[in-house]
Task: inverse folding
């Protein structure tokens, strides 16, 4: 959001009168870069509020209150955080005209997250934070396995973020860079200082009943992303070996299984 003063006042007037065609362009959190500095600006419309504060959420139970300034339009409030270059997690604390105090989510923060998932879902981890956990898990796996193949199983959002981090793809593009259907397999070759994709989002191992229904025969038409695997999965510890929940698997190609603890991210636009 970077508007001239006249354009900004016109947009605020339109919001106050209910005639704005794009409230998400003004309301909610925005990162503004001017004069070599950055700041986060938050605007909210609260017709029944006598006072509005931003509740900035920090590590643990840390909470910082910053009072918002009432703008000339009367029902719009604003606060800015100079020196901040990333949108942070926050709530709005609204004191109504009759003295009630409510703490609410800012619905316009959701719109910003849909546009740029790297800012983090409300009350959730950012894409960067998830990718840091995923990379840490990969580093731990590489420390234990100097060579060979390792299978990593996780939610597809985590896998797509990991894919971007390893291949130096901008994290905000993780939803668009790989169409990763549920159950698909990708193969990345990791060197000391590089990663190379050998196969991306392959579903050729799935039986027809597990393929997405698109109205056409994907078995005969489907192409693997950038390569195709030909492996047969077998149970290396048949049922009864370790107990009722025996899901250890390997492949005839020598892939060792390693299910990393990298959950905690869900993409509402595309599933877990």
Result:
């Amino acid at each position: 959001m970077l508007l001239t003063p006249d354009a900004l006042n016109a947009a605020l007037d339109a919001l106050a009168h209910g005639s704005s065609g794009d409230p998400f362009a003004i309301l909610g959190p925005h990162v503004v870069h001017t004069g070599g500095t950055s700041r986060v600006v938050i605007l909210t419309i609260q017709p029944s509020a006598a006072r509005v504060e931003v509740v900035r959420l920090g590590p643990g139970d840390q909470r910082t209150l910053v009072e918002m300034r009432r703008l000339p339009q009367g029902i719009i409030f604003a606060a800015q955080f100079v020196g901040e270059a990333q949108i942070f997690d926050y709530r709005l604390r609204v004191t109504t005209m009759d003295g009630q105090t409510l703490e609410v989510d800012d619905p316009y923060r959701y719109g910003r997250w849909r546009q740029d998932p790297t800012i983090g879902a409300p009350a959730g981890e950012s894409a960067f934070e998830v990718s840091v956990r995923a990379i840490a898990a990969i580093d731990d796996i590489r420390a234990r396995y100097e060579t060979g193949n390792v299978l990593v199983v996780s939610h597809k959002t985590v896998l797509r973020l990991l894919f971007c981090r390893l291949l130096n793809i901008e994290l905000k593009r993780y939803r668009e860079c790989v169409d990763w259907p549920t159950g698909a397999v990708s193969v990345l070759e990791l060197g000391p200082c590089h990663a190379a994709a050998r196969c991306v989002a392959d579903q050729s191992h799935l039986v027809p009943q597990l393929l997405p229904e698109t109205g056409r025969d994907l078995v005969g038409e489907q192409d693997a992303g950038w390569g195709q695997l030909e492996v047969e999965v077998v149970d290396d510890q048949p049922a009864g070996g370790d107990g009722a929940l025996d899901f250890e698997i390997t492949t005839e190609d020598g892939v060792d299984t390693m299910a990393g603890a990298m959950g905690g991210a869900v993409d509402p636009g595309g599933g877990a």
